[in-house]
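Bit of a strange request maybe. I'm writing a small parser for structure token strings and I need a real example to test against, not something I typed by hand. Could someone generate the tokens for this chain?
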Amino acid sequence: YLRTYSFYIYIAGLILTLAVFIPGLGFSHGGATRWLSIGPLSVQPAEFLKIAYIIYLSTWLYAVKDRVKTFKLGLLPFAAVSGLVSIILLLQPDTDTLVAIIATGTVMYFVAGASWKHIGAIVLTGLIGLSILAMTRPYILDRFKTFIDPSSDPLNSGYQIQQSLIAIGSGGVFGKGFGQSVQKFNFLPEPTSDSIFAVAAEEFGIVGSLIIIILYLLLIIRIYTIASKQKERYAKFLSTGIGTLIVSQSFINIAAMLGLLPLSGLPLLFVSHGGTALFFTLLASGIVLNISRRHS
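Reply from user aminoacidic:
Good idea to test on real output. This should exercise your parser:
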């Protein structure tokens, strides 16, 4: 069913994400226009777009087969499908989600047997694109500057990473105990969403932090194992994409809290508060479970 209706699912994802620009329906927060207001609910349609992109890209990779190695039937269509998503997310702007989606698509493209030259071209284009965005959008440049020197502006752009490192460091080996975090009270920004790993590290220490990381590693190993056992190529691409998307977002979040990557607005999936992200993560996980049950 997903393969049959994948094109319509992809188009629906694009339209819903564009709907945030409709006055009275979409609304802005923190300088970004990413949400739809539907009665008492607020929904972030980019979360649906992530899954829709993976479903459609899997269908295209399934159909193109070995021709994925060519420029005309491989790289060019991949660039077109990914480019539409990129334009919409850049308009919001939602650079973090864009990076996660394109990284996931590139992994799927690689698994399908794409040329190394084409993979290199995608990576190079991505680096150039990020450089241009950093020069044209001050908040992205500030993130890179903070990443290079977290202490350069401790009360402004470097505030979140400084408070995160304080929380993680003060947790010690075993942490302060469940619910005993101090940093989550008016010190650490977004303690229930973007910064929740720092809170967990403060409360459960190095031991708890390692358990969280190991759980994500076990999850991606399991999903990739499911993908490797698939006889049907579509199921292989779909499960690979979903696994990569879920775990890459979570590891980007953890790395950002540790100062190993620039700060991002990506949630720690299954842990961070957030209705839309959790809903579609569970939906995607259900697809992988279905693949594992029916097609192994």
